[in-house]
């Protein structure tokens, strides 16, 4: 399950020489609903205030538009972060990459994963995302919950297949 919007060069950057990528996806687009709704709400509020208050009330007009610009920039930042965050599963590891300016890669060896679960809320079932919960005997829980994973049931089955193949 390789997302066609992710370039092969991006995937290869994180792979070991003999490693095969099985899953490479971005977080689900629904992670952008809240920032998008906030930006649209700010723009709608600004338009309503500009329409309601007369143009002579310059304080309202000058104070509202910077807030709209800030909300739109905030939403744009979230889109940029979403475009650069990936979830990878290889035949050896599970990885999550974060960051635009500073890149962070969280990794757990597949052999160290002791338990794998997934859960889907009602909104996750409607929109098509879920949370993968990885439990491992690694001391750090840096990669415990991976939220907004698209097709979590399919990815769960593929990961279970890899885990059971590697333990036999």
Walkthrough of the structure:
- This protein has about 170 residues and is of the alpha+beta class.
- The chain has two domains: about 10-25 and about 85-165, Pleckstrin-homology domain (PH domain)/Phosphotyrosine-binding domain (PTB) (PH-domain like, Roll), CATH 2.30.29; about 35-80.
- It has five helices and seven strands; from the N terminus they run H-E-H-H-E-E-E-E-H-E-E-H.
- The strands form two sheets. It has a four-stranded antiparallel β-sheet with strand order 1-2-3-4.
- The two termini are about 25 Å apart.
What are the defining features of this structure?
44% helix, alpha+beta, PH-domain like, 168 residues, single chain, transmembrane, 4-stranded antiparallel sheet, 2 domains
Rg calculated over all Cα atoms: 21 Å
CATH topology of the largest domain: PH-domain like
Number of helices: 5
* CATH homolog superfamily of the largest domain: Pleckstrin-homology domain (PH domain)/Phosphotyrosine-binding domain (PTB)
**Average pLDDT over all residues:** 87
Report the sheet with the most strands, covering strand number, pairing sense and barrel closure.
Answer: 4 strands, antiparallel
Write the CATH architecture name of the largest domain: Roll
Q: Return the string of H and E elements.
A: HEHHEEEEHEEH
What percentage of residues falls in helices of 4 or more residues? Answer: 40-55%
Strand-pairing-aware structural class:
alpha+beta
Point out poorly predicted stretches. none
In what order do the strands lie side by side in the largest sheet? 1-2-3-4
Spatial separation of the terminal alpha carbons: 23 Å
